[in-house]
Amino acid sequence: MSLVRSAGLRGFRATVAELGGDAESYAVRAGLPVAALDSDDLLVPDHAAGRALELAAADLRCPDLGLRVAARQDFGMLGALALAIQNSPTLADALECTSRYLFMHAQALSLSLVADPYDAPGIAALRYDLRPDLAGFHVQGTDLGLGFLHRAILYLVGPYGLRSVELPYQPAAPVSVYEEFYGAPVRVRRPAALLRVPRSLAGRSLADSNEQLRRLALTFLEEQSPGGSGSELLPRLRAAVQRSLGTNPPELATIAGLLNLHPRTLQRRLGDQGTSFAAVLDEERRQAAHRYLTATDIPMTQVAGLLGLSEQSALTRCCRRWWNATPTEIRRAERALPGDRSGVQRGSVGTTMEG
User: Fold this and answer.
1) How far is it, in rounded angstroms, from Cα 170 to Cα 187?
2) How many C-alpha atoms does 224 have within 13 Å on its Cβ side?
3) β-sheet bridge partners, residue 126
4) What is this structure's pTM?
């Protein structure tokens, strides 16, 4: 189980009330403390927060609930991290400190700048990863987080040339609702949640940045951070591995560098917690493989690449070890189920896309 700061639920009570519902009843049904609806600083199970959103969206017949809550949220809910972001000299610096300290707000959430999936000249992508639990995707949670990210960038730099939005599911709300919210084309059933942006965006200067305030905020964040030596190491490691899969080789030295640790130090601290880098990497690959095989029709060679595996045969060996079945058998078995019990939306990925 991983935790999320209750500030992420800001706006949920008001949005539900506006729709004629009772936010507290959804909190109770989802296993959330009611106090989480009005406090920013409680740590609550992320799956419970996601379930509260999904329950409300279904009961109130509001499939764009996540976007509506995002529209009510403000940058200040990030606390000291917001201060550090606002006072960064460039958007790239803001993204770097966000990636470093975002785990303090949501352990299962990661944000990274990656290559454009369509190789369009001058385009990069902001990848938003909300790790799904065994029940499948948190559609409303992803809508909420990605929507907040979009609005945060608008707040920092104004219109930023958003090229398109990629969603890893087929939303229940019309795509036109999403396109109105983002002001850009929206593509569904894609491998990951992305905002495709001009590569030059990272170098955009932030107005009125104050280096002294930024240093104060970063010092506070560092003091609050366990530095990777305590219980937060595993969530940070998992987030770093998730960001690297399909983009960078998920090697020990590379991941340790992302955590500002020496590889031997990382291995020693993981050993103290009864695990290893290899075990964590294998688990992240297993979860990602299950998601790609059961929730999309991505070709097997592409699935292997997204997992950081060198070839399709390596994917087959892994699947046999994990589930005693081939990738094709896993995909066929999921299709044979009488209904989608996991709540995951399935779909295909086009082989050619316009940049």
Assistant:
1) 9
2) 15
3) 113, 195
4) 0.66
The three-class DSSP label of residue 19 is coil
Q: What is the mean pLDDT of the chain?
A: 85
Strand partners, 123: 198
- 43 bridge partner residues: 5
For residues 226 and 232, the answer to whether their CB atoms sit within 8 Å is: yes
In the numeric block, the tokens 């799956």 are attached to 47
Phi-psi region of 308 (alpha: psi -120 to 50; beta: other; left: phi over 0): left
pLDDT at 231: 52
325 φψ region: left (φ > 0), alpha (ψ -120 to 50), beta (else): beta
CA–CA separation, 23 and 35 (whole Å): 11
Amino acid at 223: E
Q: What is the pLDDT of residues 113-150, one digit of tens each?
A: 889 999 999 999 999 987 654 334 589 999 999 999 99
Angle, CA 312 vertex, CA 259 and CA 286 arms, to 5°: 45
First-to-last C-alpha distance (Å) of the chain: 38
| Residue 148: both structure tokens together | 């907040």
Element (H, E) at 187: strand 186-187
Task: Name the band, by pLDDT with cuts 50, 70 and 90, for residue 155.
Answer: very high
What is the tens place of the pLDDT at every residue in 160-200?
999 999 999 999 999 999 999 999 999 999 989 999 999 99
pLDDT attached to residue 347: 37
- When computed from its CA atoms, the radius of gyration of the chain, rounded to whole angstroms, is 20
**107 has pLDDT over 80:** no
pLDDT in tens, 257-270: 777 678 888 898 89
Please, which residues have CB within 8 angstroms of residue 194's CB and are 6 or more apart in sequence?
A: 114, 117, 125, 126, 127, 128, 165, 166
